[in-house]
Design a protein that fits this description.
alpha/beta, Aldehyde Dehydrogenase, Chain A, domain 1, 2 domains, binds nicotinamide-adenine-dinucleotide
Length: 477
Amino acid sequence: MGKSYDAELALFINGSWRVGEGRDSFAVIDPASGDAIAQVPLASAADLDEALAGADRAFSVWQATPAEARGTVLRKAAALLRDRSEAIATLLTLEQGKPLAEARSEVAASAQLFDWCAEEATRLYGRTLVRPTGQRAMVNRQPVGPVAIFTPWNFPLYLLAKKLAAALGAGCSVVAKPPEETPGCTGALVRCLADAGLPQGVVQLVHGAPDMVSRHLIASPVIRKVSFTGSVPVGRHLMRLAADGLKRVTMELGGHAPVLVFDDCDLEKTLDLVVPQKFRNAGQVCVSPTRFYVQESIYQRFVDGFAARTHGVTTGHGLDAGSKMGPLSNARRPGSIEALVEDAAAKGARVMAGGKRGNAGYFFQPTLLADVPDNADIMNNEPFGPVAVAAPFSTLEDAVAKANRLPFGLAAFAFTEGLRTANLLGDAIEAGMVGINTFAVSAADAPFGGVKDSGFGSEGGIEGMDSYLVTKAIHMA
Ligand code: NAD
């Protein structure tokens, strides 16, 4: 501990930082204590109109800026993020709760996204079609227009950087509404872009009541695309709003990742990998491994080994050097996780580790539930917290059926040394990302996105940048 909260909380509209000035505000809470540490000003309807007008004007400037010059700004922003890493990571931990080491990694990964998109911006090629008549057609790709982006509180820097880097690399201007829980660190990220020389109005940062802000922005004819990361119900709601204006959408929604553990895996190595992954960011990760289906012959050894390791996960304030897991990020989470655990226990699950909330702040113990039946709520609703659930499976077919039984399809994982099993799983599992003997399924160069209720559209990789582009065919006789 010992580092204090030091952030100037402001909106960034048309190139200028706007502080309180009579605006409504929300309290920013340190989730480790539940104490208010600052107030963030909220955008009014007039602020949003100004942001939209600024993004509209700036779009014509930014889309005409050569890709190399756009890349230069993104690369400078990446360098500034790295220079300011310690201060930004500290804000992230104080606002969101994750251990400082995880916050530092998030800053580094965000910088990498800017660097990658800076390079990719120079490769947005078109193609030429040549007709026997001599007519030619040029197929060009152009930025879709000003975009509205809505990002959540679990990876407030990385998920904002992911959308910003691709949109800016593609030549779009942006009105961004990051989560109101973490305004200091997201403001610091936008400052890096501004200090890197981003032209006035290309990025607007607005905090505010989510429903008011999203309705206002999405209804505006200025906005040509909506990109959202968050829960399935909010995703559906925003898609309905976007439908009126036929706006393109990218929806990165919830998951409920299955992990299939086969009896030919290296069990100790697998356990050493899965337990820290489960409790990373206190399980508040859309690809968090959650439903552990383990082959019958190794099931008991797996849950015993998982429970023993879980007892060793130290929880505490994210700034305390010994903390391996921080609190949950907001007051909504502990109660909803507690209800899921109690429901599972009432339906026959064994609580093998944890199961209780902490005394202060928004802590919840690292938890393992074994023998969880399919009708337990937690087997059907994403816990989005530090809870692993386990159940046995018999055959490969049984494992695949269990993995695919929910309407979600974001990430899925499997542990096996069998090449045939790995290949079959890669084909059969309904998910946007499948990790075999790894949890590393998110990277700047790889497409990331879901199927089924987990949404559609990719972020990351060339697919992520494509989602901010439209195609135009110009035919010339
Ligand atoms: P929520 O559904 O209230 O909100 C989810 C996110 O959407 C938040 O960031 C919130 O600020 C934003 N939001 C809510 N209403 C909005 C609106 N009308 N317009 C624009 N944005 C809006 O849920 P919550 O309590 O914040 O989080 C709980 C659930 O959200 C989790 O169980 C998880 O499924 C999901 N979630 C998913 C991700 C992800 O990375 N896919 C991240 C955070 C939360």
